[in-house]
Amino acid sequence: ISIYFEKSHFVFLSHQGYVFSFFDTNEDAHNPPVYVYKEGDLTFERVDEKVSDFLQRLLEEQTTAWNGVSD
Fold it and tell me: Which candidate among 20, 33, 36, 40 keeps its CA 20 to 30 Å from the CA of 54?
């Protein structure tokens, strides 16, 4: 069984070549849901309802991580 990205999938983030974050350009044009694919998975996981939610969460996670480093 294989899983493929569609031409309408826009990958905007990759982590070490085995995790990809993307949205489908056929969905909400202004703020589409975000999906993640991890190598070996048989499905895409919907992780946020909106790109803006995804980016906000990512910013908060990274800020928290960096604040922990300086403590």
Answer: 40
C-beta of residue 51 within 8 angstroms of C-beta of residue 34: yes
pLDDT at residue 68 in the model: 77
- What is the dihedral sign for C-alpha 3, 35, 33, 15? negative
By three-state DSSP, how is residue 28 classified? coil
**Residue written as tokens 């044009």?**
29
Q: What are the angstrom distances between the C-alpha of 66 and each of 19, 59, 62, 70?
A: 22, 11, 6, 7
Q: Which residues pair with 46 in a beta bridge?
A: 35
Structure tokens at 13: 């983030």
Q: Which residue has the tokens 């790109």?
A: 51
Question: Distance between CA 59 and CA 62 in Å, rounded?
Answer: 5
Rounded distance, CA 40 to CA 21, Å? 15
